[in-house]
Write a structure and sequence with these properties.
Rossmann fold, Alpha-Beta Plaits, seven-stranded mixed sheet, four-stranded antiparallel sheet, globular, ABC transporter ATP-binding protein
Length: 406
């Protein structure tokens, strides 16, 4: 019998095999521009998405997220620039791209007067899937097996979204491109979609996920890109973007300009909001078709200090403030007692009790969490839950954007 894991999961590397060289990005976007009438909706957008990532594409309504996705899904040709999916140019070979992507648009319609199984069998036939057993595998993976004989019209909004995900998995795509997949869902349906995305990532899928609701993305994304007024403000792993912002804050606190050449690995762009208007006014002026940037070029190009004349004296080293992480501890008994034992400990920045939970700010790695738990257990305080606080993405978004709309 064909199972979901055997059908949709990648094979593990052989034991003892040599470490492979870094894989090329699964999604590669370079100097992407698009214009509707006389308005540029995408302006020189460049980023990468590595294999196996869940990449959150964030921005307000009208920022250009859906336009970017339609270009990636071969539904819209870019005015200038280049987009590659799994090494295939979306403009030169759109048919090949469609074989490796699963695209789920925002507010996609479904056929109501057929059953769930009939719906999936119809699209399996449309995709020319060789074996009908794939439908059983998809039903198992998306937990729709118990509903396979139900009419689609009788399903909730969340179940219809789950059915849409099942549809795009039928041909086992390598890349999933999802435009606002949790839009208009109730809290339970949002959680179910989030868990399904994590399971799909575990099966080796690369997921490109757009949203303007940060709470949808904070628990699932490995990397993010923030778009505002058609321009990419920042892109990369969340913790590396956070480290860059910490460096900027530390520099400003000591009266220095931000270090112009400090670009954490994986961060493709970090443009201060105040310099957002410094980008070229048109793709023709930027020469976007002729060249592709090297990693970190967007930072140097938009940072005025990068091209400033050298100073007579070497600048003093800029103190780097340690990044503060936060965790919530749920304890048995009195949380005030737990807070008392943690205050003043090495690496502990702040401790307070709120809502029956102990909120702790600390510096260092996740090993510090294990040390805190061990410390409390040795003092006969039981720990029943440990949950990192998920406000980092909101802080980054507010810090690098200006709130402008097109």
């Amino acid at each position: 019998m064909v199972t979901a894991s055997s059908t949709f999961g990648g094979s593990a590397p052989a034991s003892g095999a040599a470490s492979p060289s870094p894989a090329p990005p699964t999604i590669r976007v370079r100097h992407l521009w698009h214009r509707f009438a006389n308005r540029d909706v995408l302006r020189d957008v460049t980023f990468d998405v590595g294999p196996g990532e869940i990449f959150g594409f964030i921005g307000p309504n009208g920022a250009g997220k859906t336009t970017t996705i339609r270009v990636m899904a071969t539904l819209l040709e870019p005015m200038a620039g280049r987009v590659e999916i799994d090494g295939i140019d979306v403009t030169l070979d759109p048919d090949a791209v469609r074989k490796v992507i699963g695209y789920m648009p925002d507010h996609a319609g479904v056929y109501d007067r057929i059953t769930v199984r009939e719906y999936l069998e119809f699209f399996a036939d449309s995709f020319r899937v060789p074996s009908i057993s794939v439908v059983d595998a998809v039903l198992e993976l998306t937990d729709l097996g118990k509903l396979q004989d139900r009419l689609v019209a009788e399903m909730s909004k969340g179940m219809k979204q789950r059915l849409q995900l099942a549809r795009i998995l039928l041909h086992d795509p390598k890349v999933l491109i999802l435009d606002e997949p949790a839009s208009d869902l109730d809290p339970r349906a949002r959680i179910e979609i989030r868990d399904l995305l994590l399971e799909l990532r575990g099966l080796g899928k690369t997921i490109f996920l757009s949203s303007h609701i940060l709470t949808e993305l904070s628990d699932v994304c490995t990397s993010i890109g923030i778009l505002e007024r058609g321009r990419l403000v920042v892109a990369g792993p969340i913790h590396e973007i956070s480290a860059r912002l910490e460096a900027i804050r530390a520099a400003e606190a000591h009266g220095h300009a931000p270090p112009p050449r400090y670009v954490p690995p994986g961060v493709r762009a970090l443009v201060p909001a105040q310099a957002a208007q410094a980008a070229p006014a048109s793709p023709e002026a930027a020469g976007v078709v002729q060249s592709a940037p090297v990693a970190g070029a967007a930072v140097a190009a938009t940072d005025p200090s990068a091209s400033a004349a050298p100073q007579p004296q070497a600048p003093q080293p800029i103190p780097q403030a340690p990044s503060v992480r936060r965790v919530k501890l749920r304890v048995l008994g009195n949380p005030e007692a737990a807070a008392y034992f943690l205050r003043g400990g090495p690496g502990i920045v702040e401790v307070h009790v709120m809502g029956g939970l102990v909120h702790v700010g600390y510096t260092g790695t996740e090993t510090k969490i294990a040390e805190m738990v061990t410390h409390l257990v040795h003092r006969n305080i039981g720990i029943v839950g440990v949950e990192p606080e998920r406000n980092e993405l909101e802080r980054i978004f507010l810090e690098v954007t200006r709130g402008d709309v097109q």
